[in-house]
Amino acid sequence: MSIDLDAMSLRELRDLRNKLDRAISTFEDRRKREALAAAESAAREFGFNLADLTVAKQARGKVAPKYANPADPSQTWTGRGRKPRWVQEALDAGKKLDAMEI
Questions:
Q1: Alpha-carbon distance 64 to 77, whole Å?
Q2: 60 falls within a domain
Q3: Cα(72)–Cα(36) distance, integer angstroms
Q4: Model-level pTM?
Q5: Could you report the per-residue pLDDT of 60-86, keeping only the tens digit for each?
Q6: Is residue 75 a contact partner of residue 90, using CB atoms and an 8 Å limit?
Q7: Domain DNA-binding protein H-NS-like C-terminal, which positions (predicted)?
């Protein structure tokens, strides 16, 4: 099948593009369904269902602050992740992290 794009009007080209977009979308949806069915089948072969194997990790809950800025107690840090600037500045000044514990 050969299409002469140069001979088509702008409206015909846009209609063709819309048809192509729909065809691509339905093709991708169909392939996703096929992949999901194959994954479910493979999980069943091992005695599981797909939900057993794809459970997302539970989100961590809020953690209470462990350290507070002695100069401004409203600035706190849980001790997780990157150190806040005030913690790093205090450590650079020779203070111990233990001295900032709440």
A1: 9
A2: no
A3: 54
A4: 0.43
A5: 778 899 999 988 999 999 999 999 999
A6: no
A7: 57-102
